Amino acid sequence: MDDLPQSVVIGGAEFSRVDSDDSIACWTSTSDVDGSRSWSASIVIEPAAAPDAAVRERAATVCSGWEGYVEIAADYLLERLREPQFALEPSELVKLDAAEPPFDAPEAVIWGDGSWMLRFAESSLEMADPFGIGVRFEGTTATAVEDLSDADPV
Prior knowledge:
It contains 3 helices and 8 strands, in the order ββββαααββββ. The model has no long low-confidence stretch (mean pLDDT 89).
């Protein structure tokens, strides 16, 4: 859609439009955090429209609190993935006790309704193959594990 902006600036970060069909609009941004770690976030709106004030506010909140949300999501996964419904093998449960969590390459996805997910694109857990594992948030609270193993590629 030609009437959608090619970029939007949110909280000092520039989100660039990604080519997609006319039914969806997507902008992405990546930035350094303290010069050592980076964050990656996408805004996805369906049907295609420019991000409204609420979506911009959510994106700014997620990006400005990045390290804290990554920690919340990792801790949430470390706790929840021990539950029987996730059926992790004993060798995978051991990974949950390692010094470093078995999740990396976090990316945020913020949808047009303001809901969002922090997805760890890389993980050594089988359920994270091939698309990673996500944590859904309601506002600033982690609320659900997203098993992306059966997700359709976009």
